[in-house]
Amino acid sequence: MKEKSKIEKNAEERQISLLSTALGEASKANGYWLNASGKRYPRLYPHGVSASPFNALFMALHSDRNGCNTNLFTLFSDAKARGTSVREHEQGVPFLYYNWNKYVHRNNPEEFINRGTYLTLDDEQKKQYKGVHNREIRTLFNIDQTTFPHVDEEAYRAVLQQDGNAMERGYSEADTRRMHIRFNDFLLKMRDNLVPVRYDGSGMPHYETDKDAVYMPRQKNFDHYNDYVQETLRQIVSATGHQQRLAREGMVMKNGMPPSDDAVKQERLVVEIASGIKMLELGLPARLSDESLSLVEYWDRELKENPNMIDALESDVNNALEVIRKAERGEKIEYATLRNRKQTSDMQDQLPKHYFVADELRKRPDKDKKTIVLVIDPVSKSADVILPAGASPEVDNEIPGMNKARIGRALRREGIETVRFFNPDGALGYRPDDKYFAEKQVSLARLNNWALEVLSTLNVSPAVKRANEVGFDKIQMIQDDKNRWALYIKPEHQRGYSIYPDKEDINRFFSTLKQSMDNIDKVRMELAHKYYALAEIKPDLKVDLFNSGTQDVDLNRIQRVSVFKTKQDGVLCAVTIDGQKLQPRSVSPQQWQRMWVAEDRDSYKRHLAASLFADILQKGQSQEEHAGEKQEKETEIRQGEAISRQNGEERTVESVSPQREAWDKIKAKHPDAIQFVRTGDNYTAYNEDAVKVTETLALKMEKHEADMKKGFTASVTFPVSQLDTFLQKLARSGARVVIRDAEGLADARNRTTGITERTAGNGQTRTLFDTAQEKQSERRIEPEENEQRSSMRR
């Protein structure tokens, strides 16, 4: 995910604080956590513009927290322009505003265009791009935080009567009746356009994934009408997460991990928040169910520790409510499979046509034998008649034995309603493509007096099958080195390749896994057909994720490659280059998975080694080129020293410090890991590692002159006591860590074997292990085998 700015991080912290506080206090308020006073849906005053669901959530929570009478908000500048400025020391609520000024190609994540270019495209071309939201943070203030109630009391009272809480508006029995009518109308639209809502005598509300239906007890089974409304909304929100309807974004943001208890708990939070916002839209208070109250502590911890949690919630909640709103507008929510089939069919129409059947049939009619070819469609009750060369389709131009009127009457007696005549070639030649012959009966016949005599039946099904179906040897979701998901497909008798699918299809694929659906193989095949057709139309979308991509590297210098898994260091790659065996380097879970998918595993391992050891290969190739330059530099140094001695000066060439040598040695072994060096009661990260630590942990980085620390130009330091806390944050951000003592001595207080942290960002397991026997006393957080391998085998 894109690194967030300081403003975005502050806004996120404010959102998490509001949500965690509201959820945490629900147990003390009989489960009520949102809009307990029954205010209307948040809007911007005085324009009346409604906020997006996720923005509305935090506007309402802010209003509840500050005891405001309405959910009406304003910008600081707008309030000031109206003469009702924001009061002193008031804290606003973050408002997420998106600028759609950049667009990315749906199947090529490297291709971006600006909004101006996007607007020049036609409708079909626009479908190939999706907007990249450039997020800006605005701050809104409730009108009760401004001087408006004091500047214009009469206008403020009018606002309360229209948009105040239930007490201010004077909620009556008539309002209750209108609410019942409104919700009943809502249910009818859900049944017609989204999901069946059925009554169930078990007394337990539930949504069945397999049947794709919501089952609800009778209203009388609930203590209060509001409880019945919200429970129904919970089940409908659950239905939006069906893998055929709206796959949850959070699965992709967690790198598509398979089903887990965490996924179930987070889905429950999506359901509570989305149903709560819908209750807010109805002007009703929202409660947590008894089951959800028991999960509040878990949600609070995840919101504070998982950097992806709030973003996944925003996407899932907004998307779920948008689907419900479409159904309310009367739009039929179509299954993803049906959409994909239509898209695949449209793309297949653009593929090159095959005419094997037509080319064969044109040889069969014979004027001397008086034979014709019949192509009959039993469904449409139509027939194509192919006459021999020289026989005209015109009625007034007959050849003996080819009377078209008799042929037509004979076919109509067989139930055929439409008869068309063709020649083998020419302007009236017969040349449909092979797909045309699907489900059709093809035969060789001749006219025998007033009846048609069938001489033989022609089997065209193999040609039709080749035209309509493509077999696949392998279909697999894999990740590139930037953690982006790609679909690898290997068509029969063709080379395999990868293509980047639409995000919607990625979500649906992993939601199918999450929900343990039996049709995962059908989803694989469906996506394979869709993206095979797309790749045939646009071959430039094919990508090779098994090539190192390194330029000007001689792979023949790599004599031997071994990729293996260890208990302590994870997956390693050991190579022999130019006859020299090098220290193994770490292999990422993505690279490890691709090795098992690759068609030519030996070739892939060679390219993998070229990628991991590119610095050594390039250095070796350039040694001869730079040999002359090195000699010139040495000559200059000697000349400079001679001149210095002549002038009575002393000149020394500074060597690399032992500390930097030790740092370089570990860095060469683990180039992708952040290295922490123990010095007394502190840990320190240097150079590029210091930059990464500063960005992730928000610590202050100290910069040095190039010669001050003998090679260390920047550093960041923190106490030993904060190590465990910072390791969790770094692991969740996807970072790897190596820890060593500066003096090479083991510190028993910090040598804990078998501590395992579950990363929230990508679902990988990283283990902190003890290697006190090594000379530098290193410890490292490493990923275990990617759990996606289980899905890969399936």
From TrEMBL:
Region described as Disordered: spans on this chain: 620-661, 751-794
All copies of domain Polyvalent protein metallopeptidase, residue ranges: 203-310
Gene Ontology biological process terms in this record: mismatch repair
Compositionally biased spans, kind Polar residues: 751-770
Domain called DNA mismatch repair protein MutS-like N-terminal: residue spans: 660-749
Record field: compositional bias (Basic and acidic residues): 622-639, 772-794
SUPFAM superfamilies, sorted: DNA repair protein MutS, domain I
Source taxon at top rank: Bacteria
Matching InterPro entries: DNA_mismatch_repair_MutS-lik_N (IPR007695), DNA_mismatch_repair_MutS_N (IPR016151), MPTase-PolyVal (IPR041459)
GO molecular function, one term: ATP binding
Protein name per its UniProtKB record: DUF1738 domain-containing protein
